Amino acid sequence: MPLYINEDQTMLRDTARDFIADSAPVKHMRALRDANDQTGFSRDLWKSFAEMGFTGILIGEDQGGLGLGHVEAGVVLEEIGRNLSPSPFLATAVAAVEALKGTAQATKYFSGIVAGETVAALAIDEQAKFRDSVALKAERSGNGFKLTGKKQFVSHGHVADLIIVAARTAGSADDENGVTLFAVDKGAAGLSAEAERLADSSLAARLEFDGVEVTADAVIGEVDAGRDPLNRLLRAGRTGASAELLGVGGGAMDMTVEYLKQRKQFGVLIGTFQALQHRAAHLYSEMEVARAATLRAAQMLDTGSDRADEAVSVAKAQAGLATMLAVQEGVQMFGGIGMTDEFDIGFYMKRQRVLAEMFGDANFHADKIARNAGY
Amino acid sequence: MTDLDTFRADTRTWLEANCPAEMREPVRSDKDAVWGGRDQSMLTPAQKEWMDKMGARGWTVPDWPKEYGGGGLSPAETKILREEMQRIRARNPLNSFGISMLGPALLKYGTEEQKLDHLPKIARGEIRWCQGYSEPGAGSDLAGLQTSAEDKGDHYLVNGQKVWTSYANYADWIFCLVRTDKSVKQAGISFVLFDMASEGVSTKPILLISGYSPFCETFFDNVKVPKENLVYEENKGWDVAKYLLGHEREMISGMGLGSAGGNPLLDGAKKTIGTADDGTLADPLLRAQIALFEVRAKAFNAMSEKFIDDLKAGKAHPAQPSMMKYYGTELNKSRHELMMAAGGSDALEWESERSTNGAGPRAWLRTKANSIEGGTSEVQLNIISKRILELPDK
């Protein structure tokens, strides 16, 4: 598979680009924030994502989806990133779908996801920094399980219809095995959600599970063998977050380069200054490298390559670093107006920070690569 | 079995039977690199055997057409050949500026006679070429070059000086930029080929900080160059030069980044620094630097693959080689800095046998030229900002 998007994928990109720029541009996000919206996204917009078929992008055609892959999901996510569109797409249509794929829950939830009625949230973080550890307990209780513990940084966790929860059914927090993934429905007794607005004005919840009872059929896959679906979820989420980051970084870079071509200082366009030209060219290079790494990760997920995990970590780390540079250079080059709320570039900076943190930051992934290489 | 499967099987058998054992050993020093040329005494018997056998099949340049000494292989077959060579860790049979730079330029701009005359000799490693581009007053501002070629009817009379001519003292022929019109800049340059044994050509090696002298000063004193050695048209040499620079940048950008097994950086660090109880490097800051470097190197590997795919499909921006050159060389420099840090005082030994005559520190110093030669990093950034980002000139 060559490392560029093919004709069909290019068409999908053009469609997604027009649709998202039209229905959910940056001002859509700004309006939600200004109205102090308590959902964090627009249900109507999610419905129109469904009408476009995007919600079922990774779901098989036999289950009502488009039956496409991670490259295509990335194409859509990049446009979401470019427009800073608040959307449950990454968590629901990408990460949750991958976790549920091939399990008994797929039939239960996929139709709702395809229809744009079901929104999923991922309850996988227990600390302020992502770690591969799971402490939240799930103890056998009657025919089912009782969940006790806390999760945080759960996007849409307070409004989601389905919450995917990583829980410990055996062993201790840092053990590889003994994890089980559960599908918990909205409104479960003993589950409380405290939604917090984050820096990027999205809403994420701290969840408290106080003996939440679930039946045995809430188990995604097998008991104690939740690493499998959890790893699928993480691989997809990381690759998707990388693609969304590319959109955020690319959007910030485009705005900045345009500005360099218009803004005059000392009577000349600031884009003529070599100091700024070199920084812009360096930024471009970092973004291109991140783009290649992200596309490779997505292609490897689609072909089921055994080297996918490393490619995913490389993508997430490089996309995080490159887009951090993009938003920082953006604010710096815009100067004073880049610091104002009225202007959009600051929103890009805030969204980048959130996505960079999600599913493990660059340091986490570099460390993972190092450990796997034995140092 | 598909044709490609058959090709792979045949290739594997042939390589097993024909690649000498000595040519499957890791490359340890500059002496292990084969450059070919008239002076075959610089080759070991195994080097010569491997170069000759591969050259006879056209496999030193597998994707060139057969009539020019190439293997006539498709891209898929070329890839298989590379994979099969990697499998047995076969060394590159021939390094050559003829292959990486002049060849592509001649294929595009040369006459049929020029192609038939020069390309097969490049493919078989019979003639070693050097590049006459930079001059003392024309480095990054290459088009400012002054070496003149005066029209004398059936020949040009070439006078002037080149500098940083890689291995000019070992080269048989030179591809050279000369000024055929003094009144204009880029549009007054021509691209000519001539024999380094011609009367009036002399070279003088330049000692570098690495202690080696891979570069020379090259002097031309009334050198007669036959008119048929002009490539493309008079005063249009800049087009050829630019095309060739693209190939040079590609070549430099890929230098040393394809790690065929083993990780000398890590091995060095483990040896000098040791590991903590959990198996991680005992110096956590160096470990972090190495890990973040690896992220960038692996991401750039993806970029290199993407670049080749884009080139093949005609999707690459014409200035994309500048980005590859810039990023690849800066990355290579960081790697060698880290290798020096990982090696500690062991990595400082300059002449000991233990250090293979200071291979590490000399390579580290050599990489400092990566972001200067073939257009400095700053020149590449200028090209990216003007041609890709279209930032204004004034």
UniProtKB/TrEMBL annotation, chain A:
Residues 232-373 form the Acyl-CoA dehydrogenase/oxidase C-terminal domain. SUPFAM superfamilies: Acyl-CoA dehydrogenase C-terminal domain-like (SSF47203), Acyl-CoA dehydrogenase NM domain-like (SSF56645). GO terms for molecular function: acyl-CoA dehydrogenase activity; flavin adenine dinucleotide binding. Its cofactor is FAD. Coiled coil: none annotated. Residues 138-197 form the Acyl-CoA oxidase/dehydrogenase middle domain. Keywords: FAD, Flavoprotein, Oxidoreductase. InterPro entries: Acyl-CoA_Oxase/DH_mid-dom, Acyl-CoA_Oxase/DH_mid-dom_sf, AcylCo_DH-like_C, AcylCo_DH/oxidase_C, AcylCoA_DH/ox_N, AcylCoA_DH/ox_N_sf, AcylCoA_DH/oxidase_NM_dom_sf. Residues 6-117 form the Acyl-CoA dehydrogenase/oxidase N-terminal domain. Pfam families: Acyl-CoA_dh_1, Acyl-CoA_dh_M, Acyl-CoA_dh_N. Belongs to the acyl-CoA dehydrogenase family. This is Acyl-CoA dehydrogenase. The lineage of its organism: Bacteria, Pseudomonadati, Pseudomonadota, Alphaproteobacteria, Sphingomonadales.
UniProtKB/TrEMBL annotation, chain B:
Residues 235-389 form the Acyl-CoA dehydrogenase/oxidase C-terminal domain. GO terms for cellular component: plasma membrane. One of its GO terms (molecular function) is oxidoreductase activity, acting on the CH-CH group of donors. Residues 45-126 form the Acyl-CoA dehydrogenase/oxidase N-terminal domain. Gene3D superfamilies: Acyl-CoA dehydrogenase/oxidase, N-terminal domain (1.10.540.10), Butyryl-CoA Dehydrogenase, subunit A, domain 2 (2.40.110.10), Butyryl-CoA Dehydrogenase, subunit A, domain 3 (1.20.140.10). Residues 130-223 form the Acyl-CoA oxidase/dehydrogenase middle domain. Keywords: FAD, Flavoprotein, Oxidoreductase. Its cofactor is FAD. It holds the Pfam family Acyl-CoA_dh_N. The keyword Flavoprotein applies. Belongs to the acyl-CoA dehydrogenase family. PANTHER family: ACYL-COA DEHYDROGENASE (PTHR43292), ACYL-COA DEHYDROGENASE FADE29 (PTHR43292:SF3). This is Acyl-CoA dehydrogenase.
